[in-house]
Amino acid sequence: RLVLSRLLGLLLAAQALAVRPPTYSDMFGVYSPDGRRVAFTSDRSGDPEIYVADLPSGCLSRLTAARGGDAHPAWSPDGRTIVFQSPRRGDDVRIYTMAADGSGQRLLVDTRGFCGVPAWSPDGRHIAFQCSSVTTGFGEKETPWRLFVVGSDGTGLRRLTDGPGNDQVPSWSADGKKILFFSDRSGIDQVYEIDVASGETE
């Protein structure tokens, strides 16, 4: 009876631990193109970093270990590369890429301010992202968010949007010709569409 009582106590303790809420945050989860992995940001190590969970095996891999907050991972269409934002070189938040296993981390384009929320084009040739020219502005009226596009090799940076509003969270059309985003340019947040080639917005 004593042994059984101890086993029951251990079981109840394990159940209590299992339902205890986590003390860390997991954010910005995105499936890999094949649906077998999920990249996400977590502060479980104390600092926001990029992790990848392999769904079939349940294995979890930490890909980044830099000071600051690495966030908003996005997969390339072939699943081999991940693009993300990071302030690892100081106050400015820039766009970086790395292999899907975390190797080969490199600065994609040397910008100033707060640049983030990157999104790959369907053909893998371009990356769209939003950028505010001052890191501490975070999209206030003096430093609104703009949308930019750059080649996946870091060349050909160009600004897509301009004007009085904050243009945020780019999302490519399936054919890669247009980008959806939301903006408060009318005074309230609404969804817009921009032609990548011509820059015409609807």
Distance between the termini: 75 Å
The largest sheet has its strands arranged as: 1-2-3-4
| Number of H- or I-type helical stretches | 1
Largest sheet: number of strands, sense, barrel closure: 4 strands, antiparallel
Determine the fraction of residues in helical runs and give it as a percent range: under 10%
In percent, how much strand structure appears in the residues? 35-45%
Shape: globular
Number of strands: 15
Query: N-to-C SSE series?
Result: HEEEEEEEEEEEEEEE
Secondary structure category: mainly beta
Task: Give a brief description.
With 202 residues, the chain is mainly beta. It has one helix spanning 2-19; strands spanning 26-31, 37-42, 49-54, 60-62, 71-75, 81-86, 94-99, 106-109, 114-120, 126-132, 146-151, 158-159, 167-172, 178-183, 190-195. The chain is 9% helix and 41% strand.
Verbal overview:
It is a single chain. With 202 residues, the protein is mainly beta. It has 1 helix and 15 strands. Mean pLDDT is 87; it is low at 1-5. A 4-stranded antiparallel β-sheet has the order 1-2-3-4, with no helix packed on it.
